[in-house]
Amino acid sequence: MATLIDPEVERNEILRHYRRLLRTAKPYLHGNDAKLIKKAFNTSLEAHKNMRRKSGEPYILHPLAVAQIAVEEIGLGTTSIVSALLHDVVEDTPMEISDVEREFGPKVARIIDGLTKISGVFDYGTSEQAENFRKMLLTLSEDVRVILIKLADRLHNMRTLESMPRHKQLKIASETIYLYAPLAHRLGLYAIKTELEDLYLKYTDTEVYNDLVAKVRQSRSARNRFIKEFVTPIDEELKAQGFDFEIKGRPKSIYSILRKMRKQNVTFDEVYDLFAIRVILDVPQEQEKAACWQVYSIVTDFYQPNPDRLRDWVSTPKANGYESLHTTVMSRTGQWVEVQIRSKRMDDIAEKGYAAHWKYKDTGTIQPESTLEAWIAKVREMLETNNSSALEFMDEFRQNLFVKEVYAFTPKGKLVILPDKATALDFAFDIHSQIGLQCLGAKVNQKLQPLSYQLRNGDQVEILTSHKQRPTEEWLQYVITSKARSKIKEYLRDDKRAKAEDGRYLVEKRLELLGVENSQENLNRLLAHFNLYNAQDFFYRLAIGQLDGREIKVELFDPTIESPQLPSSLAPRSFDQEVQKIRGVNANMLVIGEHTDKFDYHIAPCCNPIPGDDVFGFETETEGIIIHRTSCPQAVKLMSNYGSRIVRAKWTDQLELAFLAGIRIKGSDRVGLVNDVTRIISNSLKVNMRSITIDSNDGMFEGQIMVFVNDTDHLHKMIQRLSKVNGVLLVERFAT
Question: pTM to 2 decimals?
Answer without folding.
Answer: 0.60
